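Deadline looming. Please check this record:
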Amino acid sequence: MARPAHFPRERILAAARAIVAERSPAELTVAALSGRLKAPVGSIYHRYSSRDLLLADLWLSTIESFQPEFLHRLEGEDPLEAGLAAVHFACCWVRNHSQEAHLLLRYRREDFIRGAWAEPYRSRAELLKRQGAAGIRAYCRRLYGDASARHLRRVRFALSDVPLAALRSSIEVRAKMPGDLEALVQDTCRQLLARGSSSPAARGSQRR
């Protein structure tokens, strides 16, 4: 029976996230990771043949920890309420996963991966991109009856741009999320998504 790895992938990625949260992606080196883990450099290179592969896996694994559940929330029965549920999930995820949120909200993909993607990371990235785009288009069609460019812009602005801008401010100053921040984000997103929507919840909001 093979012995379990002393420095498994999950442990390496957790240490890598901590370094990025405390410093920056540029300072995530194999030497820094080796020091954090108190592991031989060879143990890290056994898992990742280069620093570039480590950075790519760190970026992709963080998105993979967030995106599937976010998209799942968009599938709720009432599309307006489903959108708000997805926004609520994003706020909770940021609150409960500070290091992962720090990575996604403060940095871009280009800070982790430059140039061509190596396999199998390219396949993972393409799958995430396809799933994300398909999930947003399907949600837009449910909310507005079509996935026109105009409606997609509104959905992306409400579900992505508004929450990211609001949540990033807390991450950048390393402060606790203000207690009323989610309510402000939810109110803004509700107004954006409800306009022109055929959702029963949207019609109820407009009557009020």
In short: The radius of gyration is 20 Å.
